[in-house]
Amino acid sequence: MERLIEAMETDIAQPVRVGPKAFGSSMPQYLHSAAENFARRREDIIKTGGARTREDEAAQRRQTDKS
Question: Which of 19, 43, 52, 58 is most enclosed, with most CB atoms within 10 A?
Answer without folding.
Answer: 52
